[in-house]
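User: Second chain of the day. Same drill as before.
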Amino acid sequence: MPVSVQTFGTIAEANRALSAGRGAHYMGGGTTLMRAINEANPDVETLIRVTDPQLSQVRLEGSAVRIGAHVTMREIARSRELAFLAPVARVIGGPQVRSAATAAGNLFAEQPYGDFAGALLACGAQVELGDGRRTSVEDVLRSPPRSIVEAILVTPPADGLAFKKITRVKPKGVSLMSISAVVPRRGGRVDNPRIVFNGMADKPARSNGAERALAGHPLSAETIARAAAAAADGFTPRDDSHASGWYRREVAGVHLSRLLSELI
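Assistant: Same format as last time:
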């Protein structure tokens, strides 16, 4: 069956078409959707596109940075306002992928292609939807909305974002897993840490065990060891062509320990 393409000038028009159209899919960069089209996936009948230039803009909104849904990894890697996310964007695929892959598209990428979404989750980012709602990245990952993502709003963490990608082929190979960590400290103790693993579940997810082990304690070798021991708690990673679930569980704590040790 041929795939039709509908192009709209506004997000509101496109959002109505997406909601009404059976088999309709929104197309941003197309790095994952084109694969489904090339494989003649029968679920893809219509592609919805938007030409609104706001979707390709990065701008400051108070203390937050507003990332338009169509902003690419290449643009993120070059943006002064998004310098804290540049190390993540730079290791997503090769130059061709980074020139097409978008910030919003990574929120819906199947595992293991969710490194940027994991970093946004660690930063506590918010998502603006085409239907006017605003919700958290965590909610979008948990339950993808039937609405176009218009923008992502993220506040640069005061204590920085730590990121580590584990891959067999450096620097652009597919992740076996990646870890994003925001570890604020107040009065010498860790306060409200956010530790996110990509590759340990169906979507990027927080390591509740590691966060509990860190919260309220000095960031010391002993605290890091406790966090590493609890890193895989609650995760059931799957087997794939890159690594087994058993291997991922075994090495999660090792890599978290190495990442956190760099913050001491």
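The mean pLDDT is 93.

User: Great, on to the next one.
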